[in-house]
Amino acid sequence: MLGNSILIVDDEVSYLDLMRGLLEQEGYQNVITEENPLKVISILEQKDIEIILLDVYMPQKSGLDLLEEIYAQFPKIPVIIITAVNEVEVALKAVKLGAYEFITKPPDTDRLFLTIKRALGKRLLETERDSLRKTLSDEKPEQKVFSDIITDSPHMFKVFELAEIFAPTSETVLISGETGTGKDLLARKIHDLSPRKNGPFIAVNLASISPSLFESELFGHKKGTFTGAGNDKMGYFEAAQKGSIFLDEIGELPLELQGKLLRTIQYNEIMRLGDPKPINLDIRIISATNRNLLDVVNLKEFRADLYYRLNRGFIHIPPLRKRGDDVLILSDYFLETGNKIYNRNILGFSEDVVNDLRTYSFPGNVRELENIILNAVAKTSNSQYIDTIDLPAALHSEKQLPTETRKLTSLDDALEDHIMYVIKMMGNSVQKAAPILGLSERTLQRRLKIIRDKAK
């Protein structure tokens, strides 16, 4: 037996009796019928109705006018319009006013029952997410401390716990995680929880610095040291005095500069280019990487001694696909953000979109999810729900082929195929593809050159 409360509104008593019989035969026991549309709002105020089946043409009040009134006061109750007139304009207006679906009389029972099931499923998902958001705000004190990192994942709460342990110390911290997981947010939080919170927080993306400017950007230079050095320049390390410096993508630091960074950590001092006089530092170093630095150490591309000095405190941020329902919580948050940015009033996501969000791997993690949802909100101007048509094709086409039909290939070849696929999906843009693949633009350029050279 199904305990969902369903309200049917129609001015034909015989039709109400027919529909009640069909629904009760299907197993729905809490079916309420009403022939006077003027009484509907009162019913909704008194009873917990979960879904409404509504006729359009009624003498006391138009179903579309009633729909608009229902949506204004009870926007989360799905309304299915069922009418004898199959008019495209009426259907479009109903959907625009907030109707979940438009079905003509006499309804095909299979379609009707499936539509009711989907609408109730959507209602349940929204109720669960509302409850979860309330739980997060009422029962998770650590969530309030890390309010700018939205999650309900036990893995992430462990991340917060480690951050709180390391923050009060002066130890270096290494944060690992795929691109888009929020390593920069966590680094900032460690700084904000530390005794250095009133000092500067200097964030440096090492992958964005030209190799020829690394040393000057990090350590500074004296006037006249090289062509173009018209004035003394303070480097990032010196700018972080009394605060923290965040070295993002530390794995991109050239090998020849790794020794200088190690010396900086060991002796708490730097030397500007062209100046033999050392400058004493009072800073805290936090670094981050989307690579497995131990693998890079084994490849002799990263110094082992530097790795262990950076890794006094280690925190790994899990990818979004391993954070359970975080994808839905974050989707709701980005939807609310998008509604404000684009002046929309979108209520949520279709059932198919929810399924896609649950199953997609999100190689670009939270950053990719944010881009997907905000773009979908921007495109969804005449609907109350984001549907699959508003999402990138990759989101709902990422399906594994059955094992027996997949081509057997080497891991290297599979990796190359995936790189070229993402490049193609991003319009051949290295800049857009790099964060999704978890690579710096420089590393991706190198891999593309290797792939294209092999193809010649």
Order of strands in the sheet with most strands: 2-1-3-4-5
Biggest sheet, in brief?
5 strands, parallel
Give Rg in angstroms: 29 Å
Helix content: 40-55%
**E-strand count:** 14
Question: Strand portion, in percent?
Answer: 5-15%
Assembly annotation: single chain
CATH topology of the largest domain: Rossmann fold
* CATH class bucket of the largest domain: Alpha Beta
Number of domains: 4
Mind telling me the CATH superfamily name of the largest domain?
Answer: P-loop containing nucleotide triphosphate hydrolases
Structure write-up:
This protein is of the alpha/beta class and 456 residues long. It folds into four domains: 133 residues, Rossmann fold, CATH 3.40.50; 171 residues, 3-Layer(aba) Sandwich (Rossmann fold), CATH 3.40.50; 80 residues, Helicase, Ruva Protein, domain 3 (Orthogonal Bundle); 53 residues, Orthogonal Bundle (Arc Repressor Mutant, subunit A). The chain is built from 20 helices and 14 strands. The strands form four sheets. The chain has a five-stranded parallel beta sheet with strand order 2-1-3-4-5, sandwiched between helices. Strands 7-8-11-6-12 form a five-stranded parallel beta sheet. It is elongated and about 95 Å long. The N and C termini lie far apart (66 Å). About 3% of the residues have low confidence.
